[in-house]
């Protein structure tokens, strides 16, 4: 969740509570410290895992996570500990979404190194996931070590061992590295934005192929998608909510219209294989929007629950959302 001008913790908490009250299954936020306009002096940054730790203590049912975090922001051992801590605080309701990171200006503004090439960013992502998941699954009494090109861990005998181990989400639109990394590490492959079911099915096919290459059954992973949404009970409500969608990219992949129209859009994506739907919502103070979707859209869906997201400045695969 990263609205156009950022948000205070109290705003994020109110949105998470509205998500839970409306019947959604999870609340996800994004991982940003700056809006798309780096000169915007009104932006209010918040750190994602700090806020989710607080929300974990103020909610009781919804799953919590980041879709997706930036691997460039945190050392992998620290990330493993932070997520494990939030998971304990939530009673085991946390999931980890992780991506390469992409916003170079944001890194410069906060003194965070930004790898120069996409290859290095993907390499770092794979090593981070190896370390995080390796630490979490290290049996009691054993130590964890890792030697990579970018990160090393030396005989850690006390790694964080969350119980249950948080699910890992990896996704995006890449044709090669993203599906390959997801096949190795992910419990859920996220197809990011998709105009329709056909486009989404093609992304899932790439993931299936990557799983086959390493001998993994692709049916062992959940499949998700991101849907920007502007739902209204009247045409005027639809127009008002659609007007704040952040970009043409988002609008061209959005579900805009009545509850029936939004449900039909989601049904097209679930027919393509999505079992998890993240709804990307822009005005975080419009809690009536969340209540409307919960009351009028969820009832029209089959077995998939779609969840609210707020990410006016987030990249295409970094919303908050909910699923089951």
UniProtKB/TrEMBL annotation:
Can you tell which superkingdom this protein's organism belongs to? Bacteria
- List the residue ranges forming a coiled coil, or say none: none
Q: Fetch the Pfam families from UniProt.
A: Bac_luciferase
InterPro entries this protein is in? F420_OxRdatse_Rv1855c_pred, Luciferase-like_dom, Luciferase-like_sf, SsuD_RutA_monooxygenase
Q: Which species does this protein come from?
A: Pseudonocardia humida
- For this UniProt record, give its keywords in alphabetical order, as a comma-separated list: Flavoprotein, FMN, Monooxygenase, Oxidoreductase
Which stretches make up the Luciferase-like domain? 5-242
Indicate what this protein is called per its UniProt record: TIGR03560 family F420-dependent LLM class oxidoreductase
